[in-house]
Amino acid sequence: MSIIAYIKHLAERFRYETGSQMLLDTLDRLGVSIHPFYLFEESLPTGGPPPVVPGFGDVEIRPLGARDMAAVAAVPWRGLDEDFFLRRLERGNGCLGLFDRGRLAAFTWYDRRACDYDGWRFPLSDGEAYLFDSFTLTPWRGKGLAPYLRYRVYEELAARGCTRFYSVSVRTNRPALRFKQKLGGRVVGKGWLVTVFRRWRFGSRPPGRRA
């Protein structure tokens, strides 16, 4: 990618991400991964989906399958290939995508078997789901798509009997924290995870969960 495109990418990051989050990203590239995080419990809010920017385009929301993983893997700067996402599907994970005039604008993943976050892993009961990797592509940020798609994945899973949802957000990721709080999510645990040169890992233990 050209230098101009990279500068634009950095400008967008400065606009939507905190300095502390970018510092953590820099340390990660140097081999020290530090993740202080919150465990959220969420549920389907009442009152309908949150609004998006007025006059937004022709939106389509649908489950993503194997043929869509090339588009998911094409998101710049994430460094994850198509096979990585295909393996998620093979493990039984699901993905819901939002398209704007046929272009993938946002997506979110879910797992109905376990919370599989690197820091805290625990099995899920019937009626529970773990929501993860919610991502809005840069051209569509700031339009309210993240909470809107979150509401839609609640609906999708509620139709399958899920009434309780878990998710994890890094504490410095303010946009993610704001949109979960807008939807009524509440913090039920605080943890941290440190990985050094991808060899040594240590962190906190997950809290007990109510039945």
Would you write up a description of this structure?
The chain is α+β, with helices and mostly antiparallel strands and 211 residues long. It contains six helices and ten strands; from the N terminus they run ααββααβββββαβαββ. The protein has helices at residues 3-16, 19-29, 69-73, 82-90, 145-158, 174-182, and strands spanning 32-42, 59-63, 94-100, 103-111, 114-116, 121-123, 128-136, 164-170, 186-196, 200-203. The strands form two sheets. The chain has an eight-stranded mixed sheet. The chain is globular and about 45 Å long.
Notable characteristics:
211 residues, alpha+beta, Aminopeptidase, two-stranded antiparallel sheet, 6 helices, 29% helix, globular
Give a brief rundown of this model.
The N and C termini lie far apart (49 Å). A hairpin with a 2-residue loop joins strand 3 and strand 4 (103-111). The protein has a single domain (3-203), classed as Aminopeptidase (3-Layer(aba) Sandwich).
Gap from first CA to last CA: 49 Å
Question: CATH superfamily, called what?
Answer: Gcn5-related N-acetyltransferase (GNAT)
Structural class: alpha+beta
CATH class: Alpha Beta
For the largest sheet, list the strands in their spatial order: 2-3-4-7-8-1-9-10
The residue-averaged pLDDT reads: 82
What kind of sheet is the major sheet?
8 strands, mixed
- The CATH architecture name reads 3-Layer(aba) Sandwich
Structural domains: how many: 1
Output the CATH topology: Aminopeptidase
Unreliable spans are: 6-17
> Nearest-angstrom radius of gyration?
17 Å
* Beta-strand segment tally: 10
Number of helices: 6
The helicity comes to 25-40%
Order of secondary-structure elements:
HHEEHHEEEEEHEHEE
Write down the overall geometry: globular
